[in-house]
């Protein structure tokens, strides 16, 4: 749920970039950072916890427009990708107002995308959030590469509700701002409703329709998963590129509980600026 400061008249909206490891979430934030006026954005923060392996996730605060006479800030956050960081993924997800699902379009990564998406759904259930009703945008990333998962496949497996999807090449900046605009467009009215008015429950019929569509996609995903288990190949990732122009501020956290409170604190600090 968005933070509101009634005294300074600021609203912070949390957008989480979710998706499997190396799908391009950080690349999205880096591109946004590099293209935005320093007055309209904060530092790109890179958060790490000293677990067995260092994990990173990123936070980029940006300013954008008004809701009534409240200034709107978006907190763009990424989640750590590795399978064993489910707990960290969950704490980043807590209180998300909108989600961008960044899928990796490389064919060998279809399973990773599907698994990660199922994980997203499960993690939200624990916060009593239904993925069918939270603002959600799909970004099918790495479209500049060869050997791609067709958009139709993605849509039938992940996107039975026909939500907005963007074909992107985050590395080249293609589709990055389009994605951000789309998720902002979907999230702002929901936040506005939550803060300034009654939240309208979707009609029962609409609820049922969405549930059915989602169930069908789930069954299809299971089928694809089973087929692909049989033909698992080695996965090749594209090489990491460092962008020397981007300065990242690193913050170390001591524990899982710390992550949540630190993220909250950072969000509130940015509201004062
Ligand atoms: N070819 C290509 N590579 C990309 C694209 N987006 C990200 N990458 C690369 O994929 C790797 C992982 O990206 P990163 O943003 O760190 O993934 P994250 O784990 O989701 O944060 C990096 O080497 C990126 O340069 C893209 O659109 N096309
Ligand atoms: Mg990352």
Number of domains: 1
Number of DSSP strands? 9
CATH architecture: 3-Layer(aba) Sandwich
Order of helices and strands: EEHEEEHEHEHEHHEH
Distance between the termini: 20 Å
Instruction: Give me the secondary-structure category.
Output: alpha/beta
Task: Figure out the total of helices.
Answer: 7
Profile the largest sheet.
9 strands, mixed
CATH class: Alpha Beta
Strand content: 15-25%
Provide the gyration radius in Å: 18 Å
Determine the mean pLDDT. 85
Helix content: 25-40%
Low-confidence stretches: 233-244
Shape, per Cα inertia axes: globular
Ligand inventory reads:
guanosine-5'-diphosphate, magnesium ion
Write out the CATH superfamily name: P-loop containing nucleotide triphosphate hydrolases
Write the CATH fold name.
Rossmann fold
TL;DR?
It contains seven helices and nine strands, in the order E-E-H-E-E-E-H-E-H-E-H-E-H-H-E-H.
């Amino acid at each position: 749920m968005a933070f509101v400061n009634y005294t300074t008249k600021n609203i912070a909206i949390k957008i989480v970039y979710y998706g499997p490891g190396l799908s391009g979430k950080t690349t999205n934030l880096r591109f946004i950072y590099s293209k935005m006026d320093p007055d309209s954005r904060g530092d790109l923060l890179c958060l790490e916890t000293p677990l067995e392996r260092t994990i990173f996730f990123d936070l980029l605060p940006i300013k954008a427009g008004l809701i009534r006479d409240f200034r709107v800030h978006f907190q763009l956050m990424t989640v750590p990708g590795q399978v064993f960081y489910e707990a960290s993924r969950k704490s980043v997800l807590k209180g998300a107002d909108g989600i961008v699902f960044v899928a990796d379009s490389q064919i060998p990564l279809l399973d990773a995308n599907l698994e990660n998406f199922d994980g997203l759904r499960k993690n939200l259930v624990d916060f009593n959030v239904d993925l069918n009703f939270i603002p959600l945008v799909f970004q099918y990333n790495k479209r500049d590469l060869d050997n791609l998962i067709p958009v139709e496949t993605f849509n039938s497996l992940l996107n039975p509700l026909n939500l907005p999807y963007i074909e992107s090449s985050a590395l080249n900046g293609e589709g990055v701002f389009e994605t951000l605009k789309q998720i902002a467009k979907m999230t702002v009215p929901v936040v506005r409703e939550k803060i300034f008015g009654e939240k309208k429950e979707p009609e029962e019929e609409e609820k049922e329709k969405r549930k059915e569509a989602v169930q069908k996609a789930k069954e299809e995903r299971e089928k694809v998963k089973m087929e692909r288990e049989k033909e698992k190949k080695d996965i090749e990732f594209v090489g990491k590129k460092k962008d020397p122009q981007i300065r990242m501020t690193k913050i170390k956290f001591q524990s899982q509980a710390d992550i949540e409170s630190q993220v909250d604190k950072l969000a509130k600090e940015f509201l004062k600026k």
